[in-house]
Amino acid sequence: MNQKKKYPGSMRALHWIMAILIFGQIYVGWYMTPWKDTNLINELYVWHKSFGLLIFLLVVLRLLNRWRSDPPELPESIPSLDRTLAHWAHRLIYVFIVLIPITGYILSSTYKYSSGVTFFGIDIPELLPKNDTAFAIFDRMHAILAYTMLAVLTLHVAGVIKHRFFDKNPENDVLKRML
Ligand code: HEM
Ligand code: HEM
Questions:
Q1: Which residue's alpha carbon is nearest to atom 13 within ligand 2?
Q2: How many Cα neighbours within 13 Å face the side chain of 163?
Q3: Taking Cα atoms as reference points, which of 71, 51, 73 lies closest to residue 10?
Q4: Greatest Cα pair distance in the chain
Q5: Domains along the chain?
Q6: Which residue has a Cα nearest atom 24 of ligand 2?
Q7: Which atom of ligand 2 is the closest one to the Cα of 74?
Q8: Helical residues (DSSP H) of the chain, grouped into ranges
Q9: What is the pLDDT of residues 41-83, one digit of tens each?
Q10: Reported pTM
Q11: Cis previous bond, 125, omega within 30
């Protein structure tokens, strides 16, 4: 970690690509359930699985990239409570984006009427045995994790807005570092 002003370009690019994909993914997940047997909804299930797996690949890439990069420290002027909240929100978001696709894959795999899992047309094996109880548990977990992440993301964005528009110190405007 260092006192540089901006995040490296690769981290900024991955942040914004994933932000768009994740908000889209939550919206589509919410819209397509409860399931109705229409062409649109069936198509959305297929796209939701493909994009969910893509998000998983991107988060693996993002964590490796973060580990090899040198992200900037938060400015000294940020109050310590805000600093702690920001660090925990970031950690939690990473945990969510790893666990949500995994639970999605497990619920799809254990669902006895599953139409299969494909990654943009490539068949992905459903490795787990069909099991109603496991499906019910992972289906709940997937939804709870996704909507809890949305709440944490709301706090994340509220924090960014506070530091940009409500703090007296322009040094606190962390959005500049991510643009
Ligand atoms: C970061 C990635 C993902 C996010 C944010 C996400 C989000 C969501 C959300 C918000 C729902 C609706 C939950 C509800 O209201 O009950 C949902 C449902 C679903 N997700 Fe995901 N998902 C992701 C990845 C995946 C993956 C990778 C798969 C499978 C390979 C998957 C399979 C499903 C399925 C099958 C449903 C419908 C479950 C049902 O009909 O009860 N998701 N997802
Ligand atoms: C799905 C949506 C989003 C996700 C998953 C997400 C995730 C993250 C994560 C994990 C970090 C920490 C980066 C690191 O140090 O590794 C971060 C930083 C940041 N995010 Fe987001 N974010 C999202 C949306 C947004 C939005 C909409 C904004 C703008 C309003 C935003 C602004 C920022 C800024 C400014 C930082 C850098 C904070 C700092 O300087 O330390 N993010 N984001």
A1: 90
A2: 23
A3: 71
A4: 57
A5: 9-178 (1.20.950)
A6: 19
A7: 41
A8: 9-32, 39-68, 80-110, 132-161, 175-178
A9: 999 999 999 999 999 999 999 999 999 998 999 999 999 999 9
A10: 0.96
A11: no
